[in-house]
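Sequence in, structure out.
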Amino acid sequence: MKATQRPSAIPGYEDWPGYVRSQQTAAVPEASGPLAAALGVPAPPPKLPVTVDWEDTHRGVTTSQLGWQLGFGPATRAWLVKPSGDTGPLPGVLALHCHAGNKYTGASRLVDFPPGRCEPRVSAPDPGRHDLYGGLALATELARDGFAVLAHDTFGWGSRRFNLGDPPWRTAAAMEGRRAQWREEGRQPSPAEEYNAAAAFHEETVAKAAGLLGTSLAGTAAHDDLAALSVLSALPGVDPERLGCLGFSGGGGRALVLSALSPAIRSYVVTAMMTTFESLVPAYLDAHSWLLQTPGLSLLGDWPSLTALAGAEKFLVQYGIDDPLFPETGMREADRILAGLHGGAYTGSFWPAGHEFSAGMQREALAFLAGALA
């Protein structure tokens, strides 16, 4: 009897285990060492050859599609957006995309593409831009305000996604149920919907694999983000002494972690990703991905207290009062903790908003970074 070949649990990332085993933990400030160890952040390559696939100018900004290979998994695709004609040096900002349950795309949801250019596999703007970002392309808006902005796909998203065409057994079984539901509804899902459904089931497998390797989903994403920050700081026309980052939702969590791990970040913005760990138990746990809920992370302190590891001079946290992912009591307590820890270096703002990065919130974030990195 012919044995059935067992599919890979990490399709497209079979070289991930060897990479993690060959790398030391990322070099970070001494105070941040326990965080890097808890997340299992592998040291990114010291220098990355960067390719430029295309460059185009439209409506006052120049957009370039970049790429680099990190040493495992598929190559990273990223976009650099900056004011056209401005040679710098400009303050640099890393724009970190959200989770959004959409891993088919990544950073492309933050970019307004010039005519004739679009993110591969996608013929229209990411719907998440309209649902979550007030219809605005965050990276492009930042560039119009005078920043050099790099938006990259991180581990598991967009160009860095897993190959789930032949999914592992547990994911395949779950997808059979989802397809049956679609058939009952008379729906024909798009390739993006198919992939995102599979990726949602597969995220648990990725988290298990990461834990087995001594890393985590958040730690491997932080590895990708540290590498992107090093790319940004080395780009012509970027002032490496004026670097910041910002993100919404999962991107906000990544901004907090990146700021804690890298002393190069002078200012950052966390949007719709701040509460206390205690407030998530028991009713809000299932609203969040493995980007926030890394086993053992709470042994280092609460989520707000991790900001004390960052060397940033100023940072902004934006809260949505009606955010269904966080209880208001947890957000209010986080705000109280942060004000006590940081004094005037911390700014907290509460918005009559749900889980979103509205146009008004973006205007506040852009103005804050402009003042902090001027």
